[in-house]
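The passage that follows is intended for readers who have already worked through the single-chain material. We present the inputs for a multi-component assembly, then the predicted structure in tokenized form, and finally a short commentary. You are encouraged to pause after the input and sketch how you expect the pieces to fit together before reading on.
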Amino acid sequence: MASPRERRYRIRQERIIEHARGIAESEGWAAVSTRRLAQQIDHSQPVIYQHFRSREHLVAAVVTQGFVELTSLIREASAAAGGGLEQLCWSYLDFGRQNPALYEAMFTRPTHLRFAQEDTPAELRESFEALAEVIVRAAGDRADEDVAALTELFWATCHGLTSLHLAGRIPGDHLKGQVERICTMIRG
Amino acid sequence: MASPRERRYRIRQERIIEHARGIAESEGWAAVSTRRLAQQIDHSQPVIYQHFRSREHLVAAVVTQGFVELTSLIREASAAAGGGLEQLCWSYLDFGRQNPALYEAMFTRPTHLRFAQEDTPAELRESFEALAEVIVRAAGDRADEDVAALTELFWATCHGLTSLHLAGRIPGDHLKGQVERICTMIRG
DNA sequence: ATAGATAATCTATCACTGATAGATTCTTTC
DNA sequence: GAAAGAATCTATCAGTGATAGATTATCTAT
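Having made your guess, compare it with the prediction:
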């Protein structure tokens, strides 16, 4: 169905996204420039704008990919033996540790992507929904209102630890006890 | 003691910091440029570098000021009638809401400032210590190890809520119940 | 197969950024 | 008031995101 032209276009787009992510992880987002990306894919700089309306849209594409990965990670942790909150918590922390730049783009860098709204992309929604499912299972039967609030709280707490840890604001020395406390809090 | 020259130098430095903070709050950190700051204080652009080694050092100066304010805010919340965890939690959330750009610089933007280390500036340390004092009071007698872990956890949780809220990742609809849960978790 | 239309790509440029070198002016000190 | 020193300016550099317009490649229809 896809013409050769379209196929090449998509392949190139994937390459751009991959390189952007790679450069960000190894040298930080400031090092991700259109000229450098163009050089990596052997094209001139304006070609980047055939794929992304702006640099921010390019970053958003990386972010979307990140949420897809995070969703499947949540589902895996949920389906695994045990499948408890603790396991999910550790998976989340590991995700941040293994992809600090990606995580930074997903959660702390300014972006035009809006969350928890009508026009929120499906990929972002699904992460939240996957998380909510685990919360429901762990915290028993509750009103939808409570599930949303608990999911937010769980997410915020995991994010707070990850964010401060990645930014060098807190050491990781006390994570074990902290994770236990978080999970106890959520289970009620 | 201070010569007129030094006095003018310090006044100008304060003005630069104020303008940087003001621009950041109204238009975001990307709008804070050396040229624009120079224009605001009626000098040429390189003068900024008489005060700050780099743009990042300028941002760090704003951040330091932010931590001074956060510390006194924690002390006030701690000394106020009641002086409980809930009050502190709300004060923290308000601080973020009222100074989103400042908060962003303090906690989520990349910086050379290191925390929880030997060379950590006193202003940053004091915020943590002020927080730890409140935790000790609220959570009763504990080992120092536990106090540090609990303080980190409390901070991370408040930060997680603030951060995701400011970035538009979660709505603020469920804050009341979430704050209560956090405080219950800390008190143990 | 080839001419015409269309799409993709390139070169060149714009306005802007942080940062620095060197000439110039202002301040201070003797 | 003259010499020494510090502070400030102009001018510039290399790099950024983004765009306009010329050029080339690709596809379509005869």
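Commentary: The longest helix of chain B spans residues 55-79. Residues 5, 43-47, 50 of chain B lie near DNA strand D (CB under 10 Å from a C1'). How closely did your sketch match?
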